[in-house]
Design the sequence.
């Protein structure tokens, strides 16, 4: 609270910028901007403006303070304006007034005519269309669709739709801004210069990780190069900024598309490793990656920085056959045909451990992983698939789906189905055949989903299996070169 003896005189304060901005970019399409704002205050109430904000400031997130804590500083009022001068905006400011228009003529000499701006055609509040509900959106859209965004100019007592030429405006007034601007009424009991700390959340900023993985044909090791890609669409350029990247699912009160990675066989996942120009540390429940050098991040610019380079990472190629083609749905105990459609594709996956021992071993942010393989004949790299991973902690296994095998196919057939509704049991048998047309033998993981009921027992099986979760089993079988492997099993359900 301010001391009661302050004289509430109002002065204007010139604002300068001290030092370089610091930015933390979140991979949820927002960022936090921090910078030092230099101002010269007088005792009492000061009008202060900061004309270097982004065009997507979350105004209620703004913090302005004396970080040293030595000065009593109170914000009486804060305003954020994002309507910088444009032709449409100036037409609105001079609506009802008469101005000059420069009209081109056929002989090349333009003519100046006087016209009164009856309607400017400026439709404000477009940024608020999605915030205030359907009625607000429809009203704004109707204004545009009905021609409300078309200027009306009166010349010599006659109205015309559209501008007769280039408008020539008088000098800018005090109510006009050139950039998005934060302004405050600041009360202080101590006059003099102040380097205040300004921080705010802004939209229009994001980052993601991208990983390029290369390996020789049939090699058991891969090389990984990782990049961070930072996108700046905030409407502002940050000169010599200190940049941090926050990885993790930070709670935000807004609708978001948040991916998740779980166990089992998902057709996405991924990995990565930091080094050199980027350092990593744990921060609260998240991970923070810091660019070692200050960099200029221009508006509408996409910047990439290498943050991982690892060689000799041991990686396995995995073939997975999941022959169940249907979508899971309700109670299927009495529907014999459910689950009998066969998927023939065999998935190709690459798997490796994110560990120090395997030349990795740091938390890896979510991103896209692209795989390249070197052709043994001409040594050229060929693209062989890509997918995404979620945030992956250290020492976790990374499994990435890269496509379907061309020379390995599967077939799944229901061979028996019996149900006894009076005694509440069901027996079902399957035959799974995997055919390998390669010149070398392969191991295939056959995944079977026990979808009929939660209580089940495998009564017969041709090969050993493992239980991967409450309703999934897996057979690991070797399929000979240019040969096939047949697996059979019988499951008994009871309820």
Sequence:
């Amino acid at each position: 609270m301010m001391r009661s003896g302050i004289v509430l005189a109002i002065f204007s304060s010139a604002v300068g910028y001290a030092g370089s901005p610091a930015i933390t970019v979140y991979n949820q399409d927002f960022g936090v901007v921090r910078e030092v704002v230099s101002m010269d205050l007088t005792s009492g109430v000061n009008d202060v403006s900061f004309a270097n904000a982004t065009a997507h400031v979350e105004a209620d997130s703004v913090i302005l303070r004396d970080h040293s804590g030595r000065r009593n500083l109170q914000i009486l009022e804060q305003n954020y304006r994002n309507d910088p001068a444009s032709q449409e905006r100036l037409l609105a400011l001079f609506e009802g007034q008469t101005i000059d228009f420069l009209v081109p003529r056929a002989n090349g000499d333009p003519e100046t005519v006087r016209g009164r701006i009856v309607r400017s055609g400026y439709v404000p509040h477009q940024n608020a269309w999605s915030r205030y509900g359907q009625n607000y959106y429809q009203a704004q859209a109707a204004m545009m669709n009905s021609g409300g965004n078309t200027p009306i100019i009166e010349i010599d007592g006659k109205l015309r739709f559209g501008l007769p030429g280039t408008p020539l405006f008088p000098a800018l007034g005090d109510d006009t801004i050139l950039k998005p601007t934060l302004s405050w009424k600041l009360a202080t009991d101590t006059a003099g210069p102040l380097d205040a700390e300004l921080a705010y959340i802004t939209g229009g900023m994001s980052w993601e990780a991208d990983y390029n993985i290369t390996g020789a044909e049939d090699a058991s090791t891969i090389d990984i190069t990782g990049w961070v890609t930072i996108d700046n669409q905030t409407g502002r350029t940050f000169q010599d900024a200190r940049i941090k990247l926050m990885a993790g699912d930070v709670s935000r009160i807004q609708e978001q598309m948040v991916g998740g990675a779980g166990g089992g066989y998902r057709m996405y996942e991924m990995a990565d490793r930091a080094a050199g120009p980027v350092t990593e540390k744990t921060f609260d429940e998240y991970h923070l990656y810091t660019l070692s050098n200050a960099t200029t991040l221009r508006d509408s610019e996409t910047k990439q920085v290498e943050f991982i380079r690892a060689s000799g990472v041991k990686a396995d190629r995995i073939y997975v056959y999941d022959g169940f083609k249907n979508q899971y749905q309700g109670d299927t105990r009495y529907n014999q045909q459910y689950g009998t459609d066969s998927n023939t594709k065999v998935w190709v996956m690459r798997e490796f451990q994110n560990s120090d021992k395997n030349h990795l071993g740091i938390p890896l942010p979510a991103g896209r992983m692209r795989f390249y393989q070197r052709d043994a004949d001409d040594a050229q790299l060929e693209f062989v698939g890509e997918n995404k991973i979620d945030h992956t902690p250290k020492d976790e296994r990374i499994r990435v789906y890269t496509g379907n095998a061309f020379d390995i196919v599967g077939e799944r057939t229901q061979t028996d189905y019996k149900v006894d509704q009076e005694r509440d049991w069901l027996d079902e048998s399957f035959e799974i055949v995997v055919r390998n047309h390669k010149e070398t033998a392969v191991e295939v993981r056959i995944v079977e989903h026990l979808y009929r009921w939660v209580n089940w027992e495998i009564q017969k099986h041709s090969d050993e299996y493992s239980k991967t979760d409450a309703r999934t089993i897996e057979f690991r079988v070797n399929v000979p070169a240019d040969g096939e492997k047949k697996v059979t099993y019988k499951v008994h359900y009871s309820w």
About this structure: The mean pLDDT is 84. The first strand starts at residue 10 and ends at 13. The chain has three domains: 10-83+177-203, 87-168, 207-240+247-495.
